[in-house]
Design a protein that fits this description.
With about 600 residues, the chain is mainly alpha-helical. It has a single domain, classed as Sodium/glucose cotransporter.
Length: about 600
């Protein structure tokens, strides 16, 4: 199938489906506002009264950072760079294990509302304030692109009104966050995960039908070099390899699941630590499902446009418009289905923004207001709701998520894993890690990696049945054409430091924070530090210790059982021996036992 120069646009049925998604999301907020009238405290509003169970929290964890970027940008990433992006499924396993075994036990035991309360308990107030400010800046910058970029992409392709989409998203998200608190956010996330999967499936199923089956799509992907899972190139300059994704990706996602307020706030809202840990492991299944859908959607995108790339042909102006373009191209004869896909994209936006709003409200109350201004619980609750209303309007348009998340991950790891790390070391490490990650991250914006380092796969327009922008320049690329890469002279730092894979920004910040923090702590008397055991990881917190303890108990029980069995056997043997040797009751075991028998007969006659 070739790209069409004319595609469909939104119709009434599509707008109706999109509006229905917004309406249901708002209705969930109203429901929890009515049933949760007893939420008189800010903790009830922000933490759901710590009464949540594992399954809804797990789905909410999945939805929180599976934004519209996942729905639109991940398939485009697979289309351009191949399915190696799917290796994030491996790093998710490491992330969930580390988060549930290292960070969750400490946070849950302390009973904190804001993650950054821990920094004051473990270090000092200055470290807490710096961590809080970094989180607020990170979240505002990150959610800017989550709201605006998808709206712009969908506007360019579907004709959906840009600011109408942005404003409606903000209004609905503000409404249910303010009305229902964390419970409304969690249950709305559950609904929105279902919408995201349904939107993906509508596109995937139609593409599979058009291309003649799943096997054809996989064959096209293999021929086009898209099934490049096992690239073990160790160069840190490569965009995506096995190592950059499994190593760098683990740091990035651990900074999200392990210490990010939006995620920690969810699993701390569970009614027990067991439910909290279960929510993380169940969430792993949700992450795999979303990843499978988004990667396969990217392979479908390549299969449909393998001979006529809409981006090269000038039909779309940016890669993130490719997915909406295909939706309007292959689903234009099915009114309502394009609306379902757009609802899926905006479900991702709503889930991410609502998580950010609730998290920002929590840290603002707990870290910036409560320590300095005495307020009653009723006033704190109303302030939490007010913050949920106003935070939406101050979003930025760029994300530096990994750059700030890396140093923060290093700081929390320092506090939880290193008992002799002191406040001086923690603050010095955090500032050093932030400087390093900002240096490489900002430098990469001025000197983006060259194509020979990021290695985009070839795209072509030779199958287009209309004149394209590429035709005007008499150029067409093939999947194996080496002339795609041209030599450009750059400064030394640009070629070796600023060209690092973006997935290494977070590890650089984390490892720098840990190294500097440990060194400064040792030099400033950290070995003399006396800590409460509850603020660091204890062996009793880990599942491995629980298994060891259970195994030891079972072995002990078995030892007791074996000893009891030996006692029983010993008694039985004694009894049997006594029975067999009794002159009146013993058995005749041989012919030589005759005298005993005669004695019994004699007694019987008497």
């Amino acid at each position: 199938m070739a790209a069409s120069p004319v595609i469909g646009s939104f119709v009434a049925a599509d707008y109706a489906v999109f509006a229905l998604m917004l309406l249901v999301s708002a209705a969930i907020g109203v429901y929890y506002a009515i049933v949760g009238r007893g939420q008189s405290s800010s903790r009830d509003f922000l933490m759901g009264g710590q009464s949540m169970t594992a399954v809804p929290v797990a789905l909410s964890l999945t939805a929180s950072f599976m934004s519209a970027i996942t729905v639109l940008a991940t398939p485009a990433e697979v289309y351009r760079y191949g399915a190696s992006y799917g290796l994030f499924s491996l790093c998710y396993v490491l992330v969930v294990v580390v988060s549930s075994e290292v960070f969750l036990p400490v946070f849950y035991r302390l009973g904190i509302t804001s993650t950054y309360e821990y920094l004051e308990i473990r270090f000092n107030r200055a470290t807490r304030l710096l961590g809080t400010v970094m989180f607020i800046v990170q979240t505002i910058l990150y959610t800017g692109i989550v709201i605006y970029a998808p709206a712009l992409a969908l506007n360019q392709v579907t004709g959906m009104d840009l600011w109408g989409a942005v404003i409606s998203t903000g209004v609905v998200c503000t409404f249910y966050c303010t009305m229902g608190g964390l419970k409304a956010v969690v249950w709305t996330d559950v609904f929105q995960v279902g919408i995201m999967v349904a939107g993906f499936l509508s596109v995937i199923i139609r593409a599979v039908v058009l291309q003649g089956g799943v096997s054809n799509i996989l064959n096209h992907a293999e021929f086009g070099g898209r099934l490049n899972f096992w690239d073990f190139d160790a160069s840190p300059l490569r965009r995506h390899t096995f190592w950059t994704i499994t190593f760098g990706g683990t740091f990035v996602w651990t900074s999200i699941y392990g210490i990010n307020q939006a995620q920690v706030q969810r699993y701390i809202s569970c009614k027990s630590m067991t439910h909290a840990k279960m929510s993380l492991y169940i969430n792993l299944l949700g992450l795999w499902v979303i990843m499978l859908c988004s990667v396969f959607a990217g392979l479908c995108l390549y299969s449909v446009y393998k001979h006529c790339d809409p981006w090269t042909a000038g039909m779309v102006s940016a890669p993130d418009q490719l997915m909406p373009y295909m939706v309007m191209d292959i689903l234009r004869d099915y009114p309502g289905l394009p609306g379902l896909f757009v609802a899926a994209a905006y479900s991702g936006t709503l889930s991410t923004v609502s998580s950010s709003v609730n998290a920002l409200a929590a840290v603002t109350i707990e870290d910036l207001i409560n320590p300095y201004i005495h307020m009653s619980e009723k006033h704190l609750s109303w302030t939490s709701k007010g913050l949920s209303e106003c935070i939406i309007s101050i979003r930025a348009a760029i994300s530096i998520f990994g750059i700030i998340g890396g140093p923060l991950l290093g700081l929390f790891s320092l506090g939880i894993l290193c008992p002799y790390a002191n406040a001086t070391g923690g603050l010095a490490g955090l500032l050093s890690g932030l400087v390093m990650s900002l240096w490489v991250g900002i430098g990469a914006q001025f000197y983006p990696p060259l194509p020979e380092q990021s290695r985009p796969l070839g795209l072509t327009t030779h199958g287009c049945n209309f004149k394209t922008a590429a035709d005007a320049f008499n150029w067409s690329a093939s999947p194996t054409e080496p002339s795609l890469y041209t030599t450009v002279l750059q400064p030394f730092l640009a070629e070796n430091w600023y060209s690092l894979s973006y997935l290494y920004f977070s590890p650089i910040g984390t490892l720098t924070t840990l190294a500097v923090g440990l060194l400064v702590s040792l030099l400033s008397g950290g070995m003399k530090l006396k800590l409460e055991p509850r603020v660091t990881l204890m062996k009793e917190d880990t599942m491995l210790f629980s298994f060891y303890k259970l195994f030891k108990e079972r072995v002990s029980d078995m030892s007791v059982s074996i000893n009891n069995l030996q006692d029983v056997l010993s008694l039985s043997t004694t009894f049997l021996y006594s029975f067999s040797s009794h002159p009146y009751l013993g058995h005749e075991t041989s012919r030589k036992a005759g005298p005993h028998k005669k004695q019994r007969e004699h007694i019987w006659k008497q």
